[in-house]
Write a structure and sequence with these properties.
32% helix, 7 strands, Rossmann fold, 2 domains, 228 residues, GTP-binding
């Protein structure tokens, strides 16, 4: 599935950085990138991304979805995004093409944009990300893909939680030992015995010596020291 996406935002908002963080590949057209994602159950999705600072209302018909970026360290960038969102929402209200808002540069300490109301004002989801550090940079794309494909549970392959490998069952261990060479089994038996003997010896050493009355005697020699 190929989706034409227009990424809008003031200069320096991080449009190109976001696309390149997903290894976006240039097409034959200038400033047009392809970004591919593999989903868990719905095949491959390709976003054909174009970038622009301003919205050309006459060309919105070319795109199936829109992403509006703003810089969290630049208040004017946020105001610019609000204006674009207002124009775009008015234009696309009839066909209900998905629009997602993205606050970029979450890694910047000097954050200027904190009271974000643009999502409540226009009814579009907003995501705070760091395109440079690749923090949540796939969430806006997942949101658009879910809306376009009408699959609320759609997930990208890289977004699936990784599970740790399970320990082999005792039956599996026994099966491997049965097929192992005799010499290997002997060595494993020796190691097991030595480990068990060491634990028992340490346990004896930790027990304090006692006299006939059952009282602890400080400084009494251990059994190991007596050669027992």
């Amino acid at each position: 599935m190929c989706i034409k996406l227009l990424i809008l935002g003031y200069k320096g908002a991080g449009k190109s950085t976001l696309v390149k963080s997903h290894n976006g590949q240039l097409t034959g057209t200038a400033d047009e990138y392809t970004v591919d994602f593999q989903t868990t159950e719905n095949g491959r999705i390709q976003f054909l991304c174009s970038e622009s600072q301003v919205l050309d209302i006459t060309n919105t018909w070319k795109y199936g979805t829109f992403m509006i970026l703003f810089d969290l360290s630049n208040k004017f960038s946020y105001t610019h995004a609000q204006k674009i969102c207002e124009m775009l929402s008015r234009k696309c209200s009839s066909d209900k093409r998905p629009i997602v808002l993205v606050g970029n540069k979450l890694d910047i300490r000097n954050r200027q944009v904190r009271d974000i109301a643009i999502d409540r004002e226009f009814g579009h989801p907003v995501y705070l990300i760091s395109a440079r550090d690749k923090v949540d940079n796939d969430r806006p794309f997942i949101s658009l893909a879910r809306s376009l494909m009408k699959v609320p549970s759609l997930t990208f392959v890289d977004d699936v939680p990784k599970t740790s490998p399970k320990a082999p069952s005792p039956e599996r261990v026994s099966s491997v030992l049965e097929q192992a060479p005799l010499e290997t089994c002997k060595q494993l038996t020796k190691l097991t015995y030595a480990s068990s003997h060491l634990v028992q010896t340490n346990s004896v050493r930790k027990q304090p010596a006692k006299n006939s009355l059952g009282e602890s005697v400080a400084g009494s020699p251990s059994l190991a020291a007596l050669g027992l």
